Amino acid sequence: MSVCWAQLSPVVPPPGGYNDSTCWRPNARGCDQAGKERHEFVQSEWSGRLFGGDPWAVFWLGFGFAAQGLFAARFVWQWLASERKGRSTVPTGFWILSLLGGLMLLTYACYRKDPVFILGQGLGVFIYVRNLMLIARRRSVVRQRHPGLFAGQDPADEPLVQTGRGAREGD
């Protein structure tokens, strides 16, 4: 029985490449040629399934991972802000990271042509934009009613006793 490195590890070539010394017992064609053919076949089959022959596939895969990383970073941001305040809070940065990561994931979903992913991220992007609009409106109201009250602080993060129409905001 002839056993080549290619039969033991079809995806990763041996250190120094294929040659007869990497075989336990060279076959009639020689391990060097058989190993190269097996390695190239498995590598092209694997990359063909993963990337579908798209020359931009590696870029899009990296883009998708970066988008998911940015989107996941929002939870770390929220956790750190809550620890800093000593109470659960959702800072503005959470919504900004949600929007940026969501837009990137929506772009990736469109590339992948995945309707479930597109619908989910599209709805999320709408929600993130709406929350940022509400935060901007609140900042504007607070700054008009209390100029200089929150100097150096984000007024959107501070609870208010009373804002328009008698609504109570805050904790």
Walk me through the structure.
- With 171 residues, the chain is an all-alpha fold.
- It folds into two domains: 5-51, no CATH class; 57-149, no CATH class.
- It has five helices and no strands.
- It has helices at 5-8, 31-51, 57-85, 92-112, 115-145.
- α3 (57-85) runs antiparallel to α4 (92-112).
Keyword list:
171 residues; mainly alpha; 2 domains; 5 helices; disordered N terminus; disordered C terminus
How is the secondary structure organized here?
Layout: H1 5-8, H2 31-51, H3 57-85, H4 92-112, H5 115-145
Helix pairs in contact: 3-4, 4-5
Query: If you compute it from the alpha carbons, what radius of gyration comes out, rounded to the nearest whole angstrom?
Result: 28 Å
Ranges where pLDDT stays below 50 over 5 or more residues in a row are 1-11, 22-28, 160-164, 166-171
- Largest sheet at a glance? none
pLDDT averaged residue by residue: 75
Number of helices: 5
Distance between the termini: 75 Å
Which strand-content bin applies to the residues? under 5%
SS class: mainly alpha
Short description:
By secondary structure, the protein is mainly alpha-helical. It has helices at 5-8, 31-51, 57-85, 92-112, 115-145. The protein contains five helices and no strands.
